[in-house]
Write a structure and sequence with these properties.
With 258 residues, this protein is an alpha/beta fold. Helix content is 29%, strand content 35%. The chain contains 7 helices and 14 strands. The strands form 3 sheets. It has a 6-stranded mixed β-sheet, with helices on both faces. Strand 11 and strand 12 form a beta hairpin. Helix 1 (50-64) runs parallel beside helix 3 (129-136) and helix 5 crosses helix 6.
Length: 258
């Protein structure tokens, strides 16, 4: 889909690495220690067993580019697996684990990770185990991020409540922010267009979000995003459409060296 290789690329120059993985896409970028882009490739993944195909691609990249394991920074952005956000000061680790498993977090073949979100909220999410293990072969300095956190935090308003719907094929991640504080984040399966709208509005209603004064922002990668946008405009005063492709945005940041 997209390919770039610097004229002075050499394996010994590779420093930080960024990897983006979602249901149909794998994007891998190499930088030198000063942050300049050296190498990038984007791959389309098949519908069946995308994680297995992503694993084979990462192994092939590591072998063909002769990358030896060393202390380089790798950031892995995942758009797959389970996802839940909980206030850290209200739940023990054991309680959070039970709630995460009930939400579908005990997915077979996945590894659980935890990250702090805005204002002390803890995010629990999962990544296919084989991909996490392969990345560990590249470095001992490895960080995992849910893509929804990366994108939704960049869209939040400084004042009031913002409801963000990060749309994937057949599911939606809903995040609710009060100013800069993450109040809620969860993932829901969606069969029809109305399901996306229902989960957004239902989460907002539970948290006293106002349909008249507080906005909804739709973002992500789903062909029905325009239809959901039109449907929500019938009920909500402000609905914004942020249609930047999530991987393309990471690609843009990579090219800018941010």
């Amino acid at each position: 889909l997209f390919s770039y290789r610097s004229t002075d690329f050499a394996p010994e120059l590779v420093g930080p690495v960024r990897i983006y993985y979602s249901h149909k896409l794998l994007l891998c970028s190499f930088f030198n220690p000063e942050g300049r882009l050296l190498w990038m490739q984007e791959f389309e993944l098949p519908e069946e067993e995308p994680a297995l195909h992503a694993l084979h691609l990462l192994r092939r990249i590591r072998e063909e580019e002769r990358l030896e394991k060393k202390r380089r920074s790798i950031q892995f952005f995942s758009g797959e697996g389970a996802l839940m956000a909980l206030p850290k000061d209200r739940f023990t680790a054991a309680q959070a684990e039970v709630l995460f498993e009930r939400s579908g977090g005990s997915l077979k073949g996945c590894k659980r990770f935890d990250r702090l979100g805005l204002s002390g909220t803890e995010l629990h999410f999962s990544v296919p185990s084989e991909l996490a293990e392969e990345c560990a072969e590249w470095t001992d300095k490895l960080e995992f991020f849910p893509v929804s956190q990366y994108r939704s935090e960049s869209l939040v308003q400084k004042e009031g409540m913002t409801l963000v719907g990060f749309m994937h094929p057949a599911r939606i991640d809903v995040a609710l922010y009060q100013s800069n504080q993450l109040m809620l984040m969860n993932r829901f399966s969606c069969a029809v267009t109305e399901d996306f709208s229902y989960h957004l509005l239902n989460c907002g209603q539970q948290m006293d979000w106002s349909v008249r004064t507080d906005p909804i922002v739709l973002t992500g990668r789903e062909e029905r995003m325009e239809a959901v946008h039109e449907l929500l405009k019938e009920f909500v005063g402000e609905v914004w459409l942020d249609d930047r492709h999530d991987a393309a945005e990471i690609q843009r940041l990579a090219l800018l060296g941010e």
